[in-house]
Amino acid sequence: MKTLGVGIIGFGFMGRVHTYGYRNLPLFYDPVPVRTRLVGLAELKPENCRLQSEQLGFEFITSKWQELVSRDDIQIIDICSPNSLHTEQLLAVLAAGKYVYCDKPLAVGEVNLSRLETALQTSRSFGQMALQYRFFPATLRAKQLLDAGFIGKIVSFRAAYLHSGSVDPQKPMGWKQLKSEGGGVLQDLGSHILDLMDHLIGPFAKIFAQTRILYPQRPNPQGKMTPVEADDMALMMVELPTGVTGCIESSKISTGAEDELRFEIQGDKGALRFNTMDPNYLEAYDLTQPDSPLGGQRGWRKIACVQRFEQPGGFPGPKFSIGWIRAHLHSLYSFLDSIAAGRQPSPSLHDGLRLQRILSVAEESARTCTWQPVSQFTPHLEHQGA
Length: 386
Hints:
Strand content: 15-25%
Number of strands: 17
CATH topology of the largest domain: Dihydrodipicolinate Reductase, domain 2
Number of domains: 2
CATH class of the largest domain: Alpha Beta
Radius of gyration: 21 Å
Low-confidence stretches: 377-386
Number of helices: 9
CATH architecture of the largest domain: 2-Layer Sandwich
Largest sheet: 9 strands, mixed
Order of helices and strands: EHEHEHEHEHEHEHEEEEEEEEEHHE
Structural class: alpha/beta
CATH superfamily of the largest domain: Dihydrodipicolinate Reductase, domain 2
């Protein structure tokens, strides 16, 4: 079994999550598809996390992410940097022909999307987006049931990803409140729920969106009131090619919400629903069941997906309650398994490009207050290795 060296760019929240994945994957999957070794960590201020990086097993830490890309002992680049930095880092990784695991979004702005699209046409690189909500057992099972026709023809849908972190007007500004940095709830939370719904029931045909900034100014880290550029809430009407419409929302001003991603999909034979606040279960409604006498067998039932991953993902066991980070582990496992098998990963970098185009369509709709068509992007799926 080969061992691949890993270089992680960025050691904020997501950098720590991905580091957790590489460190702990052998405990959850026996055997792992490939072994990994934490070689390098790039962080703008390495002195702030030098001791922690050493304790986690990184061999070195640097302030220059380019050093990770240029080293022969690093085969995987894991991008966890702020959104606006993704393009230059991805272009460098693609040119170097390394494996890449990239946090969303793929890029910020149409110009950068075009640059990456051009690079992806000729690159020999191979990568996956870290869109972990596809990787709960419940969402994996939802995809199976939908593909098998369990709910029949889709007649309606609604989905949301809700937080309450921006309800406080005194919350200081960060880069996620700066549009120029790729901030805003549509890019942050909306990317996850749009990707999941596009994956489950897409493609989308048209989008009508409206965004809102709750407070026009917030204090910056120094306490000075600063204009807010990026949206706190996005509401979208989404139309499928069949003419079916549904609602998708992303919000950081949903008072009372914790980290709540949920969806309901109704069909002419049944329905499915899921909520990350109750992540062990996928709920299913079978309209073919009799409703008499006295309700018969008709009604919502909970499918106990819990931690029933396919082997070799057997730890800690199928009946133990699942948590948020477990989906991240399975997303990373899927990436490494694709490397070992020599197959295109999913969601791929091309899927990330498609997602960014959907987000761009939603932003244009919000700007113009008009329905906007979603042009269909067909990804190039050939795996050329790294």
